[in-house]
Specification:
Length: 202
């Protein structure tokens, strides 16, 4: 089966070039030498493919909060997916928050076709503890793992049992893992609804 990124329900996107693991890649060394999901790119590689806009922060915090251009919007050029942050005083901190939010958005919105015969990634296997994915929603590995789970679900027509079998976890644990991120569960249920399937509950 071919590989490449695609928005769920849209045409496939070109496969990114191979990437080497760098010091700022997600922990676990997960950068596949053949292909990699956008959510798993290192900060440097991801930001190199993005437009970053800065503006004055808004909302609570008083006049000092708005005295610098602290709000950051990061837009992935090839896909149009973007995320923003402005709740921190530091522009650097807001950039970090925006990049994480972008990773999550890319994990949910961009699909990569994976070989059905391939074993789960090294990172996934390292996080599989007796059929349960041991990773919290706030961990840096989460967007990468979420992207892999959604890719496999997509490849199995959004059916949980065959997807869970491929990933080496139970169907219940797979659903619980996806449900850690509300937009991901909503996206899965939207895809299932379009196919006449019942919604999943976290």
């Amino acid at each position: 089966m071919g590989r490449g990124h695609a928005k769920a329900g849209s045409r496939d996107r070109p496969r990114p070039d191979p990437r080497r693991t760098t010091s700022d890649d997600p922990p676990g060394g997960y950068i596949d030498p053949v292909t990699v999901h956008l959510a798993a790119l290192s900060d440097a590689h991801l930001l190199a493919r993005c437009d970053v806009q800065r503006s004055r922060g808004g909302g609570p915090g008083g006049r000092h909060r708005n005295s610098t251009e602290s709000r950051v919007v990061v837009r992935h050029v090839a896909t149009g997916v973007e995320a923003s942050a402005g709740e921190r005083r530091s522009q650097h901190e807001n950039l970090d928050v925006a990049v994480r939010r972008l990773r999550l958005a890319l994990a949910v919105e961009e699909r990569m076709r994976r070989d059905a015969a391939a074993v789960p990634s090294e990172l996934w296997r390292s996080r599989n503890r007796g059929g349960k994915v041991a990773c919290s929603a706030g961990h840096r590995d989460f967007p990468t793992l979420l992207a892999e789970a959604l890719d496999v679900l997509s490849g199995e027509g959004w059916e949980t049992r065959p997807a869970a079998t491929r990933l080496g976890v139970t169907a219940t644990q797979l659903v619980r893992f996806v449900a850690l991120h509300g937009p991901a569960l909503a996206s899965v249920n939207r895809q299932r609804g379009e196919r006449g399937m019942s919604p999943l509950k976290g």
